[in-house]
Amino acid sequence: MAALPMAPGCLLAGWMMEKFGRRNSHYIVCAPLLLGWIFISCANNLTLMLIGRFLTGLCVGLLGPLVPVYIGETSEPKTRGIFLAAVSLAIAVGILVAHIIGTFISWQWTAVICCLFPILSVILLSAVPESPTWLIYKGQVDKGVTAYYWLRGYSEEAKTELQKIIERRKTTESETILTWREKISNLKSPELLKPLAIMIIFFVTCQFSGVNAIAFYSIEIVEKAVGKGIDHYVAMLIIDALRTVMSVVACVVCKQYGRRPLCLISGIWTGLSMIGLSLYLYWTDGKPTDMSWLPLSCLMVYICAISIGLVPLPWMMCGEVFPTKTRGLGSGISSATTFLAFFVVVKTAPRMMSNLGEVYTFLFYGVVALVGTGIMYFILPETKGKSLQEIEDKFRGIKNNKV
């Protein structure tokens, strides 16, 4: 019920952020998110629980493209990577905190505590401005300039980038404002089609590498490695903590290294660890062994590898690669793709494990990771240290000395 509305939520968010702005759309999302947690906390029957899950799942979809787009448009090139990587860190911390709370108190009180976060978001949003790029594109140049300098300061680099944004706005003033129907029919433009194809392949590679299937069934995998009797809560919290630590590492390495090397390193090790886990299960065939450290090591390597590259990078680049005039549409479609793939993977994983067995299921995830990484080697652009305008010009085929 939570996964079903995520993909439509992404598409709706694409329209919302263009219509109402990036910050205002965040304000709007806080209302159904709060309502969803209230329904869950007060649920005394299945219907209320499902309504609450639907609303919270919808809000996850709404926030999917909103967050990276707002961060991408408000941060400077040299720090944009670490801020965008912090999205994955925030998700990991949120999961860890919710699981810690839920370990010690009832799910109803856990939901009550979760009600505080939409309220906190409204308070914090009041302290930051609307996206200057969106304001300038909508013709509110003075407000956009004020917001830009509040966010970026008055350095020469910042002034140069602002001038490019304003100049780009002037060149589009004579162009007819496109309706959403026209934007969809305009998908053939290379500055939208190229990054959209790249992001869809990137998101699908991440999801079909089994990231959420492994997260959902990691306890069962651990049980196969060390036998029954493991404390499910302890195993879950250890995995959550490892994911959180690696998300912190991702924030650091994303600032130091480019997107391409991180993608390649992450994808290769993700694939090899899954194939290694598959081979172990094939050779042991469910028999007791004194090599239980091997599948556990494969699982840990998998979580570490996928957390520094395949998981955060698509969300980071979702806020970077799309042109200003279709950023909402592009990020909405690509984000919807990942939630659609997420739904398919989680729904098919149990059937694959029962029909094909864990060996071939994990082998499939590993092969997808390696094949997808190979494709990304040829098509993934490097965006580290480049302004959003430079990235857009790259896809438009405009020559630039810095690209």
UniProtKB/TrEMBL annotation:
Q: Which residues form the Major facilitator superfamily (MFS) profile domain?
A: 1-384
The annotated topology with respect to the bilayer is:
Multi-pass membrane protein
Q: Which Pfam families match?
A: Sugar_tr
Q: Does the keyword Nuclease apply?
A: no
Its annotated compartments are: Membrane
Q: What is this protein called?
A: Major facilitator superfamily (MFS) profile domain-containing protein
MF terms (GO), sorted A to Z: transmembrane transporter activity
Key words, A-Z: Glycoprotein, Membrane, Transmembrane, Transmembrane helix
Q: Which chain regions cross the lipid bilayer?
A: 26-48, 54-71, 83-101, 107-128, 196-219, 234-254, 261-282, 294-316, 328-347, 359-380
User: Can you cite an annotated GO cellular component?
Assistant: membrane
Which InterPro entries does the record associate with it?
MFS_dom, MFS_sugar_transport-like, MFS_trans_sf, MFS_Trehalose_Transporter, Sugar/inositol_transpt, Sugar_transporter_CS
This protein's superkingdom?
Eukaryota
